[in-house]
Design brief:
The protein is an alpha/beta fold and 227 residues long. It is built from 9 helices and 9 strands. The mean pLDDT is 96.
Length: 227
């Protein structure tokens, strides 16, 4: 089975999430794909951070959208790491990336970088938002996309098909055989997140998923599966 192991915000279980340090550790661990999150700064930079505000992951406070890149650079993102921009991650690691976008504006900014650096083969774009997936697909012909969902039913498969996403990334705690079978019938790949326990690994194995997003690099070994 060609099973993908995906590093969640790098390897956020052991390093500060969404930092160059975390991404480099994910690459050294041999993970197949590195997942990261993108937001727009006040001055239009593609900033790598999960939340809309900087409070949880840095020593600052307030919304990313109200800060310039220079202001964001002044924050400590953990262990002395600075908040990176997307282009820095591209230069720091060679591992393929899964870039999660939060809205249509981020889709447009990312599309510009992807076209300029010919990233169709290296970057998969994901989002919880159907319209963002549709927009990046319109702007970057041939881009691989994924629809993410936390609370969902079989409808998530129909939504993915509607926006042309060949992959669904689904909360493992809500995943059922019915949803997986519906996805398979529609020709979709299924990735489970966040897979951090042996129990969830066994579920991934039982449902024959295509991959798992994890906080810990050890899944690269245990993910080869002894159920």
């Amino acid at each position: 089975m060609n099973f993908l192991t995906i590093g969640h915000r790098g390897v956020m279980g052991v390093e500060p999430e969404n930092t160059l340090r975390s991404f480099i550790a994910a690459q050294h661990a041999g993970l197949d794909l590195i997942e990261l999150d993108l937001h727009m700064s006040k001055d239009g930079a593609l900033v790598v951070m999960h939340d809309t505000e900087v409070d949880r992951t840095t020593d600052g406070s307030g919304p990313i959208a109200e800060k310039t890149l220079a202001e964001l650079r002044g924050l400590d993102a953990g262990r002395g790491e600075r908040v990176p921009v997307f282009e820095e991650v591209l230069d720091a690691v060679d591992t393929p990336l899964q870039a999660e976008i939060k809205d249509v504006a981020a889709a447009r900014a990312l599309a510009e970088v992807m076209r300029g650096r010919d990233l169709v083969g290296r970057v998969e774009v994901s989002s919880f938002h159907d319209e963002a997936v549709a927009e990046i697909a319109r702007l970057v012909p041939g881009v691989r996309t994924a629809l993410i969902a936390s609370r969902y039913g079989t409808d998530v498969v129909d939504r993915a098909v509607a926006v042309g996403a060949p992959t669904v990334c689904l909360n493992i705690r809500r995943l059922t055989l019915e949803v997986v079978e519906h996805a398979r019938a529609s020709g979709l790949r299924v990735i489970g997140w966040v897979v951090n326990t042996q129990e969830h690994l066994r579920l991934v194995r039982a449902l024959e998923l295509d991959g798992a997003t994890t906080d810990y690099p050890e899944i690269k070994r245990t993910g080869r599966f002894t159920a």
